[in-house]
Amino acid sequence: MGAQSKPTISPWGRAAAGASGAVLANALVYPLDIVKTRLQVQVRGGKLAPGAAGNDPTYSSTWDAISRIVADDGIHGLYAGMKGSLLGVASTNFAYFYWYTVARTLYFGSPSSSVTAPSIAVELSLGAVAGALAQIFTIPVAVVTTRQQTASRDERKGLLATAREVVDGPDGVSGLWRGLKASLVLVINPAITYGAFERLRTTLFPHRTTLKPWEAFLLGATSKALATVVTQPLIVAKVGLQSRPPPGRNEKPFKSFIEVMRYIIEHEGPLALFKGIAPQIFKGFLVQGILMMTKERVELIFILFFRYLKSLRRAHLRKAASLISAATRKGSLTRTYRIIVHIFTLESTA
Fold it and tell me: Which residue among 17, 114, 140, 339 sits deepest, i.e. has the most Cβ atoms within 10 Å of its Cβ?
């Protein structure tokens, strides 16, 4: 009952809370996002095609990537594409939490649902449905952001200019949805994350309506770390799909995430499917922890705010009822009736 015992809040409220937490968390750790993306798209030890340029930098570690990005692009290089990224984070998480709340509400309202907490399979299914709907509407922002993050300082453009570059490419407008299949497969990542979060919450805090900040942080971070380890090869393949093709392909884009994975294994070995996993886990640990901690607080603020509005409304109704009652006792019922009719007449003609 842990998941169901939380105070009622609308899907819009949960979506706003989730988006707020996601934007705050990602803004705080954005440089890690740049680093893990750069590590995931680099090809080390691969053979270049004839005439291909191999000027893209390669990094040996997270710290090496941070140092060289700062040396080449300055501190601003660690925040390349941040506006687009935060826009994508806000839209994706708003859509995800909205549809996730709707799906859970429909499930608990269906005759087949039980009074106990849903099973792990049900939690994963609800998360997958919400993730798929969110990805369909928000993936263009992710494509543009990935292009910005992997471009060199001289080639880097603004959000709209980068989107135009993608559209002018070989795929046309459909290029904005590159990696959609991989993204739909990757809905298992948030599905595992939030399914594990709800399961851990139900197990560890079965009768709690709200979590303490450190509890929400720990559950969120642990859930995300688990999901990242399971889905890292798909994450690497998705980034490869959405970024510029490596020099060895002579500007020929990948067609599927399976093709990306084969290319990586052929040129770098199977372990390269997990490249960038250290900053990916660290970023996910911090982001998901801060996100869930913030989301819990924002949801509580929304609940208290709506309760305050309801109390104000009840107070106004009680005051109006007492005024009418006083007027009735004084024998001015006709005058009170005329005032009420006049108010309703004004409202209907407004």
Answer: 17
pLDDT at 328: 62
What contacts 339, CB < 8 A, 6 or more positions away? none
Say what the pTM is.
Answer: 0.58
Proportion of the chain in helix, strand, coil states, percent, rounded to 5: 75, 0, 25
User: In the chain, which stretches have pLDDT less than 70?
Assistant: 1-8, 44-56, 110-118, 320-321, 323-350
Place of tokens 């990948």: 254
Distance CA(242)–CA(250), nearest Å, equals 16
d(CA 332, CA 342): 16
User: What is the DSSP track for 2-62?
Assistant: TTTSSPP--HHHHHHHHHHHHHHHHHHTHHHHHHHHHHHH---SPPPPTT----S---SSH
Hey, what are 172's tokens?
A: 């046309």
Cα dist from 131 to 80, 85, 124, 194, 195, whole Å: 26, 18, 10, 11, 12
